[in-house]
Structures
1.
Amino acid sequence: MERKLRVLVIAEAANPEWVSVPLIGWSLATHLAKVADVHIVTQIRNREAFLRAGLIEGQDFTAIDSEAFAGPLWRLGAKLRMGEGKGWTMMQAISALSYPYFERLAWRKFGKKIADKEYDIVHRITPLSPTISSPIAKKCARAGVPFVVGPLNGGVPWPKGFDAERRREREWLSYLRSAYKLLPGRHRSLKNTAAILTGSGHTQGEIPTVHQSKTFHLPENAIDPTRFSKTKSVKNTPLRACFIGRLVPYKGADMLIEAAKPFLQSGQLSLSIIGDGPMMESLKTQAVDLADSVQFHGWLAHEDVQSVMSSCDFLAFPSIREFGGGVVLEAMALSLPTLVVDYAGPGELVNDANGWKVPIGNRDEIVSAFRIQLEKLIAEPDTIAIKGQAGFENVTKNFTWDAKAKQILKIYNWVVNGGDKPSLFD
């Protein structure tokens, strides 16, 4: 039997008990362990969660204690971001300062093993941000061990007409984000990387032309069929839409309520809003005259989220700055088609077969386009089930964590054995 490739996976942020990037890091790393001989290198803050999940320290993973440097910087970042869930670009800047120390410690621990070819590949999964370079890439190249990075994603530009939302999100540094392209560490990392995985068309477009031949487009999100297993089986009258996400300006829940208002008032549509955040009270005020047509569920446990979703007909998600759009894949896994703004992550996951897209524009334009599309859905509800089934088939074929691990295995084999650049999606 041909032996599995030995892969040292660097996932500084990886945690099965958290959400967002840490959950992506955990999910991808542990599913790669099904197709390769994987050892995970993570940050010490994730150690207890790894142990609770049944992984064996020293055998399955190593926890690197970089808190002496990272801890104070993260506490500083928490103060500078001025609010939970805000100042994303600020936190990435803090991570860019602290992460190299983590890699330094990781090399100190594993450098000799890499040089001795005890690993066939080194793969940095997290950080996902393309602004954060990897000093270890050059060292791996010198040792003759391919270095893979990604999926990288983030930094989607704020669309025109949403400067007020940008300021409310405390995204002051986003005006200067492009400066990272001038940093010498970025060029060294890309030069010494054997394969670059990018999670969005925008991020792929930011990779210099000279490196495009080794760049692969691979959205970072996927679903676990055991976590999203309920599929819709009942048709609602009136139609029922759902929105899922933090209640913050760029997610657009207020735009959705405004767009749907005539249909909510007439009883042709109901809306379930799952999530919480600083806009909760203003959204409730906005919906005060809509009787029982709008339900605010707040934050729900995973099982309760999919219970509400599977009782709905479609997901309506007018976010104007979504890097990945994992919620879109979760809806597809439950056979719900999605109505989105054609911008960034969701716009790349939704097509005419599995949902509906409206053009990016200013607030009034998005509200108008959503209202027009909602009216069409109410008039032609039979299209919902057809698109829902198409989305389900797409996500179960291409966007499970197992499927993603197999897609990345193609890249591993390519960087080790050479040959034609593989296609990731059959």
Note: Residues 232 and 310 are 5 Å apart (CA to CA).
2.
Amino acid sequence: MGLRPLMILGALLLPVAGGFAAGPHEHGVVKLDVAVEPGRVTLLMESPLANLVGFERAPRTDAERQRVDAALSTLNAAATLFKIDPAAGCTPGPVELNAAALADGKPGAAPAEAGHADLDGSYSFKCKKVIPSFVDIGLFTAFPGVQRIDVQLITGNAQSRRTLTRTTARLSLTR
């Protein structure tokens, strides 16, 4: 990821700017920061593990390990989770997933943890069209535990918050 997307996303996460970084852990809710700049869309996701796998600790059984493997496989399929306006010609870059309870995406390697655990994901898309019109968010379909997505969107000329639900899973990137 280049310096400019990092600066934009850093601005998103500043508590002064009203970012989600210090927000509460809420089951059913995913926090999604989206930065749109010419030729690139970057998404930062934060979700309680319970939304994705049904528990918030290292997996203990074979069935739980299989559930984690399936969730990680789905989360790594960036182009399926985030379907960007096809007219923009976007291609996904590397996906970064971080979940301390899963030893950073390596199920079974971390000790069981008590309390709340999250998974953070970073997605970057390079686009041929300068600014795509929309992103269809596939998290609702992929993970039944996701009930709401709180989005903070920043573009070259605006910053806004939006709430997506199962019936409104398309994020417009233009006003």
Note: The longest helix spans residues 62-76.
3.
Amino acid sequence: MRFTIEEYARAYSISTEMVHSRLRRNRLNYIVEDDKTYIVVPKHQVPHIEEEPVSVPQKKTTVATVIGLYQKENHYLKVKIQELEAKVDRLIDEKEQLLKEERTRIEKVYNDKDLQLKTILELINTKLTQEHVSTTTMDTLAQGPEEEAIEANIESSKEEAPVELKQYLRSLDLKSSQRKSIKRRFAEAFGSDTRILLKNGLFYLDFDRYDYSDLLKLS
């Protein structure tokens, strides 16, 4: 008994694609007459069909359908990739911002510590200078007038590092009003007198380079 491809598919309840697949693999006996393929089946192998099944048209999978599915899938993946890339970029930006803030904080701490260290060293140096000045001028301050004590201190301070004015005046046996008068004289001359050094808001005396007897004289 022979069947067309469609009849064979209905008789054995399989798809026509499956029939074509079996034909390509030579799994079925068939003949071709007038360019039409017939599948030959022995009579005893023909299944009993009580009634002809209703033919249900099957949607064929075309190349356009497959391409459409791939395009849809690719679009979905592309959107996902863009979302992930945006998330990665955002995380990188946040991390860079955190690193910049941390670097700024560390630099500020370092600068503050460096300034503190410099201030401490300057104070130590000033203290040592004051002690040296006080030691070398003690006898002169005890024996002579205040003007001679200042001149002696100036001479003994030569070849030394700059001395802070306030600390220097404290090393002298001067009255509070006299110290204020001298400091006011330095403040008024600052800007026009190159001998006056200002550092961290404090006036310094460089006895190694300048003579300050005119500014240190007592009124």
Note: The radius of gyration is 53 Å.
